[in-house]
Amino acid sequence: MPRTAASTLVSPVPRAADSDRRRTSASVVLRSVLEHGPVARSTIARLTGLSPASVTEHCARLAELGLVRESAVPRRSNGVGRPHVPVDLDDARFLVGGVHVAVPYTTVALLDLRGRVVARRELKHERTDAGWVLARAAEGLAELLAGVPDRRPLGVGVAVGGWVERETGSVVEHELLGWREVPVRELLGARTGLPVHVDGHARALVNGERLFGRARGSRSVLHLFMGNVVDAAFATNDEVHHGPRSAAGAIAHLPVPGGTEPCACGRTGCLQAELSERTLCRRARAAGVTGSANPMHVVAAAAGGDATARRLLVERARATGRAAGLLLDVLNPETVVVTEVGVIHFEDCLAALREAAGTARAADVLPTSFPDSVLAVAGGSVVLDALFRDPLAASPEAI
Ligand SMILES: [Zn+2]
Predict the structure, then answer these.
(1) 148: helix, coil or strand?
(2) Which region ranges are annotated with the description Disordered (predicted)?
């Protein structure tokens, strides 16, 4: 039966419910304050396309929740008319907790609403079972919070490598830690009494870069994380791609041309086997650079003039660049951010990375915005992304 004109006018796209629209508008207003604050309400209205009345209403609600406040000094518009009292983030009341679980240790941190690290601590893993690691993380957070009794925690973000399912807040699989189907959100929520958000660390950092780093304003960004775990995340228009069960970004077994390292999967030359920090350290030990398994010791040797250490780091940066180049071809992001120890510390590593990624796009390949605090920022970014996405739900009333 032919469709009538009337039936084709029924939109297949469901209309957003009023509550969804309110949440989205509150999010847009809070993001605008983060990016431009202190900023006049009239400017927010102009930047966001929301009506001045709606902006005023959202600012009042966000101020009630303690997330924004009026700036102390009113600014006059051209010296005439009513003073425009700008609004800004209220960063004196709240904090968020950040937890990043690496293979040898966990980083716990407190961050303010602008993603700045207020306090942090590294907790070495005496054991790697999830129960022990998460209990120790909860203790570590409690110790940090005890140091800032005048500020309340809004929630905790957890960033982990491997396959992490955001929806359920669980780690589906982390080969190196030996974690499988670990309900991180439940376990840590029970221990901290706080709302807990969980995500993969490459995705966490893409959100950190998008909200607080160099990728601000970029319409698409790829983040490549080269630690012991190697993975990637991709965001377009403020949305990080997750795919079914958040399995996107698994690049550990991407073949590296010319690779020689055997991988646990049975093949040779997989990206993670070839370029993990473990492999870097093993090669450095074999070359007599260092006796340690800490990549920072390779960096220190290179900084001290050890040519072999420098060569190993430049080679790793170049191979990382080739992987970045492949992903650039597939995804064509505006910006590529790479978190890798050599690239963070040495200009020639960054140059090797950019050259291997392809000279046409070299300027769009950037080192992490958080060279001194990348793991602390990763954990915090998970919960701050949730806060800026839905500030009304992440309110202190929810605690
Ligand atoms: Zn493999």
Answers:
(1) coil
(2) 1-22
Place of tokens 């398994």: 293
Superfamily of domain 217-368: ATPase, nucleotide binding domain (3.30.420.40)
Q: Could you report the per-residue pLDDT of 93-135, keeping only the tens digit for each? A: 999 999 999 989 999 999 999 999 999 999 999 999 999 999 9
Å from CA of 278 to ligand 1 middle? 15
Q: Please choose, from the candidates 379, 390, 30, the residue with its C-alpha nearest in 3D space to the C-alpha of residue 205.
A: 379
Q: Which element (helix H / strand E) includes 211?
A: helix 201-212
Rounded to two decimals, the pTM is 0.85
Architecture of domain 6-89 in CATH?
A: Orthogonal Bundle (1.10)
> How far does residue 256's CA lie from ligand 1's centre (Å)?
10
Dihedral sign, CA of 98, 101, 102, 107? Answer: positive
**How many Å apart are CA 185 and CA 197, to the nearest integer?**
6
In this structure, which residues have their CB less than 5 angstroms from ion ligand 1?
A: 253, 263, 265, 267, 270
